Structure prediction request, 171 residues.
Amino acid sequence: MRRHLVVFFCVVILIVTHHVIFSRERLIRDGQIVLLRLAPVDPRSLMQGDYMRLRFAVEDELPNSMRENELGIAANKRGVMVFSLNDENVAIFERIGDIDEGLANNEIRMRFRVRAGRLEFASNAYFFEEGKAKLYENALFGEFRVDADGTSVLTYLRDAELQRLVADENN
Prediction:
């Protein structure tokens, strides 16, 4: 009986894991591209290798009253932000939203969380190959893939001309 329970729970864990992986792969393949302006913080970590810790410029653009009251920047909070998208898919903050609210044609919702007083969308870091930090110093945008319910995945960093920053495989 005990062996059957162990096997059952292992199968359940594998099914859940595969579901998460496939849903993320589908999001990366089919999600709407959204570019969020970055305010980079620190491109290095001795323990984790090279990475860029990310801050999002929208955090600095919010009025203080909204940051403290609606966003609850001091508390651990989750929510939804609504952005309008320009012709190049650059996100422009519109409002703190609701998961069920209707959106205009050029709007998209993104889920956020506040952790340690910082606003996060999908990730607060972008990891890259050791020794490639110089390439990512020019990052001004994070490229996210976003689905209809606001779930997002950070896929690339982009420069001022909105070009993807990709390390050359040969170097």
Observations:
- The chain has a mean pLDDT of 80.
- The two ends are 55 Å apart (CA to CA).
- The beta strands are 32-37, 42-45, 49-53, 77-85, 91-97, 107-115, 118-120, 125-127, 141-146, 152-158.
